[in-house]
Specification:
Layout (H helix, E strand, L loop, with lengths): L1 E7 L4 E7 L8 E6 L2 E10 L3 H6 L2 E6 L2 H28 L4 E7 L6 E6 L4 H18 L2 H9 L23 H4 L1
Parallel strand pairs: 2-5
Antiparallel strand pairs: 1-2, 1-4, 3-4, 3-5, 6-7
Helix pairs in contact: 2-3
């Protein structure tokens, strides 16, 4: 195992993680976190074994060209969701201030970050915007393939590596 530090999310949270192989600084990766499958960026090696043993973050794989295309699509929809939410909050008279949004890589979840308290109006506005966004980008089949590949732990050492379960594995190319 190769321990690294990852930068994840719009707030640039730093997490210790493990990878199956060495990864260069700046490399974008798909990681499994407590929130789901997320995009991360390697910021350097981690020599702290305690940080790794306490970490719940694992690197699934490095991003592929297909992932980068999907990331651009998700970013476009995310920007639209942020602007729609900010506009709706201003029009409703809510004092809530939306800072930014994290999107989970499968497109099924938005995590909204606010400055200060969130009132009932802001809660209902953000719920409506999130539901609209998620209905646009969500693909349950894609999310399942992204998470599982051709079976649980596909592409990991526990699952026997890539391509061992089926020849049509959705993530086989990324694992090679």
């Amino acid at each position: 195992m190769h321990p690294v530090f990852l930068r994840i999310g719009s707030l640039a949270e730093i997490h210790a993680a493990t990878a199956t192989g060495p990864l260069a600084r700046g490399r974008r990766v798909i990681a499994r976190t407590g929130r789901g499958i997320e995009l991360g960026e390697v910021i350097g090696p981690c020599g702290n074994s305690r940080a790794i043993s306490d970490s719940s973050v694992t690197i699934v794989r490095a991003t592929t060209q297909e992932d980068e295309l999907l990331i651009r699509r998700l970013d476009r929809h995310k920007r639209q969701a942020v602007e729609a939410c900010r506009t709706a909050l201003a029009e409703s008279g809510s004092p809530a201030c939306l800072l930014d949004v994290d999107q989970i890589f499968d497109g099924g979840t938005l995590v909204m970050h606010f400055l200060g308290p969130v009132d009932d109006i802001a809660a209902s506005v953000t719920k409506a915007v999130a539901e609209k966004y998620e209905s646009i980008v969500r693909s349950r089949h894609f999310a399942k393939l992204l998470s599982d590949g051709c079976g649980p732990d596909c592409g990991t050492a526990e699952g026997g590596g890539c391509g061992t379960s089926c020849s049509g594995c959705a993530i086989a190319a990324a694992c090679k």
